[in-house]
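Write out this protein's structure.
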Amino acid sequence: MTDCIFCNIIDGDIPSAKVYEDDEVFAFLDMSQVTPGHTLVVPKKHVENIFEYDEDVAVAVAKRLPKIANAIKEAFPDVKGMNIVNNNGELAYQSVFHTHWHLLPRYTEDDKFAIEFSNNQDSYTQEEFNERAALIASQIKES
């Protein structure tokens, strides 16, 4: 796909600070460097978001995430944790529409990155939780 910035990075048409590459996956430093070592992991196959993954893409990416995360931790011994973030769709803050996983090393509570979740557990009954779970479960396709 010629108009995809990540496809162009993978093809070498746009320079990047490559961290890892094999036949299926490419990883490079995010230009924003939210924290030192902030790395993007992308499948080489152009896939827009998680809703377009097939099993092969999912396995390829999932197998490499720990390998690359551990390399970041080894390279930066002060890493105390890591957020692994994948945004899907514009509403979910996806800005490049070639699926990618952010590996964000965490050093301190003040390292300028935060994810916050609202706790709404008291807003729903157990019956409502069970109904939601059953609805989702009924849509899971066996492969």
